[in-house]
Design goal:
single chain; 5 helices; mainly alpha; two-stranded parallel sheet; 97 residues
Length: 97
Amino acid sequence: MPQPLSQLVDPGWAQALSPVADQVAHMGDFLRAEVAAGHRYLPAADAILRYADHNRIGHIVIGARSASALRRHLGSVSSKVVAEADCSVTVVRLGTG
């Protein structure tokens, strides 16, 4: 059985995502069904893009963190989602203090 979102992410993200927790759970169900159907593992950005396309999502909200100098403004996942999504994308950073 999948764990609740509040147990998977730090408390700040859990609180920020609480209004969309049902949609996050639905995405998890979708991805588990993809795996059960024999679809190969998808990188995170590809999974998000596939889910958004399959479910006709009109707006993606995604977090970002700096992982390297090259990806200073957006992470690699958020960069790909911004570049390839067919819908609006909002990139947010959770404050650290």
